[in-house]
Amino acid sequence: MIEVKDLKKHYGDKQAVDGISFSVKKGEIFGILGPNGAGKTTTLEMMETLRDIDSGTVMIDGIDVAKHPQKIKYLIGVQPQSPAFQDKTRLTEVIEMFGAAYGEKVDAIQFLRDVDLEDKAKSYVEDLSGGQKQRLSITTALVHGPKVFFLDEPTTGLDPQARRHLWDLIEKVRDKGISVIMTTHYMDEAEILCDRIAVMDNGKIVAIDTPKNLIKALLKRGFTKKQHVEQANLEDVFIDLTGKDLRNE
Amino acid sequence: MNKSLFTVMTFVRINTRRFFRDRLALFFTVIFPLIFLFVFGGLNSGSGGASFRIALINQSDSSFAKDFVKQASSSGVFKIDDKASTLDQAKDLMTKSQLDAAIILPKNFGTVAAGEQIPRGEAQVFYTQNNAQSGSALVSILSDQFSTINKKLVKVDTPFTVKSEELKQKSLSAFDYTFAGLLGFSIIGMGIFGPVNVFPELKKMGILRRLSTTPLKVWQYFLSTMIGQAVIGLLSLSIMFAVAIVVFHLKIVGNPFELALFLVLGIITILGIGLALGGWAKNERQAAPLSNIIVFPMMFLSGTFFPRFLMPEWLQNVSALLPLTPVIDGIRLIATEGKHLWEIAPQLGLIGIWMIVIYIIAFRVFRWE
């Protein structure tokens, strides 16, 4: 679905993205990990047509991003790092507007139902919690039935219940056959959610594989961790005490 | 419906609804210009009649003097200030320019002297050097009034007389100028300060950036803003017209449809300046100074708060070319002078040129983030 070849981008002297290549299959969740400044966001932005490409190519569904940005926009959905909406807008109106941006008349309630926001349909966006805004943002990115879905640190700042709920949503999107590309700083999230992972540092991809294989490879290199087997961790305690149900945030 | 147009109209519909939910926006587009209208309208109607502020000090207790005072107070020619009851107090107020003149009716004013049939008297008028003009005008008004009274008391033949007649032809009042200027001020407020405040905020929150990942085009976004602004602007200006007609007795002689059409043209042209500034600025710090540099000179030079004919000629020639000037002039020409659109071709032409220039710039400099 996505083919990235030798992609480069520099800002002044800094080579933000330094010749990376990878491919993402249809219906796959692909995670890009890396410390701040590794070039994750710049990579996403070039794939999303938001930033000019210095050299290299990005092909989505056989279309060159640099040559046909307008066509690409119909194929991709974008979830920004911190979704924001104009205030005094009802949830249904937000969806109608995003639909209209693609020239489509959409069933707003159906899209709200997909992310469990149906009962908030008539609320204003400013009355939503962080997790609800993330969910609304996800559904607005899918109004036009894209083939590729980009998420930039989608669960940052959410409580454990909201995070789990969002993971379920992202898996549901993948199960529809949409390719998902996401960045995250949470390793547990990447391990649970991502089918494959690329680890970036200083603008380069230093490793790319499934989470399982990456762990195996590390162990093969002789890595040992102080053995300390616990049957549960603090998050298990938290979820046990407070339940998995999503809160009326 | 055409897909591109469907996009535009959906944005217009929802953004217009949002406007009516936003109390602050409603205040600034509807109430704020009305406050200016009341302040400036009030100032103008106050100086409309040529009345003198005078102190009328009556030292006589004859019935003739009392009648004279009563008539003078109700005539409307004088505005009598009762703060001064002695000549010294009146002098003090005159030096502070709070009074134009003082009239004194002396003790024996209007009394019938022994052996006489009719009352006599001599009124005294005091004025300062600065007020020589109003002083002499006052004297001539008083002499005129006295001669009418004299005629009633003493039969005299007057072979030479003056007959004055007010022309039916309507002249522009100061308010007509002020009102067109205030509409211009209101159009600037909506069209420039609106986008200049809103766009940087939308950029900061990443809302425009998010839109730029959709196929939405800049012209669709601009067009939806233009239509929305035209609707809201017409509504706000109509309220101003209604208030001006009811409260300040503004008479609209022009065709209301031509006026509305012209207002829409003006609103959209000025909005282009706001779109260019707000669309270019990355943040408030860029937007605010640049918009002030452009807006304030235009506001004062185009005749929003005082009419352009008061300016020196060279300045009039320069300010005639500013984009807001033909808008304000055109509004006045249609609304209060009853001109038709084809009769204000110079104004329309200038607006047309500005509209093209402004929107070319606005499209060129627009940034989604």
**Arithmetic mean of pLDDT of chain B:** 87
Q: What sequence of helices (H) and strands (E) makes up the elements of chain A?
A: EEEHEEHEHHHEHEHEEHH
Q: What distance separates the N and C termini of chain A?
A: 37 Å
Number of strands of chain A: 10
The shape of chain A, in one word, is globular
Largest sheet of chain A: 6 strands, mixed
Q: Fraction of residues of chain A in helices?
A: 25-40%
Helix coverage percent of residues of chain B? 55-70%
Name the chain pair with the biggest interface and residue counts per chain: A-B, 30 and 23 residues
Relative strand content of chain A: 15-25%
Mean pLDDT of chain A: 90
Spatial order of the strands forming the largest sheet of chain B: 2-1-3-4
Notes on the structure:
The complex is a heterodimer of chains A (249) and B (369). Chain A contains nine helices and ten strands. Helix content of chain A is 35%, strand content 24%. The model of chain A has no long low-confidence stretch (mean pLDDT 90). In chain A, α3 crosses α4 and α5 packs parallel to α6. Chain A has 249 residues and is an alpha/beta fold. Chain B is mainly alpha-helical. Chain B contains 13 helices and four strands. In chain B, α2 runs antiparallel to α6 and α2 packs parallel to α8. The two termini of chain B are 31 Å apart. The model of chain B has no long low-confidence stretch (mean pLDDT 87). At the A-B interface, α2 and α3 of A face α1 and α7 of B.
Write a short abstract of this structure:
The complex is a heterodimer of chains A (249) and B (369). Chain A has 249 residues and is an alpha/beta fold. Helix content of chain A is 35%, strand content 24%.
Note the topology:
The complex is a heterodimer of chains A (249) and B (369).
Chain A: E1 2-11, E2 14-24, E3 29-33, H1 40-47, E4 55-60, E5 63-64, H2 69-75, E6 76-79, H3 91-101, H4 108-114, H5 130-140, E7 148-152, H6 160-175, E8 179-183, H7 187-193, E9 196-201, E10 204-209, H8 211-220, H9 234-242
Parallel strand pairs in A: 3-8, 3-9, 6-7, 7-8
Antiparallel strand pairs in A: 1-2, 1-4, 4-5, 9-10
Helix pairs in contact in A: 3-4, 5-6
Chain B: H1 3-21, H2 23-46, E1 52-58, H3 63-75, E2 78-80, H4 87-95, E3 101-105, E4 124-126, H5 132-153, H6 174-204, H7 207-212, H8 218-248, H9 256-280, H10 284-301, H11 313-319, H12 324-335, H13 345-365
Parallel strand pairs in B: 1-2, 1-3
Antiparallel strand pairs in B: 3-4
Helix pairs in contact in B: 1-8, 2-6, 2-8, 6-8, 6-9, 6-10, 6-12, 8-9, 9-12, 9-13, 12-13
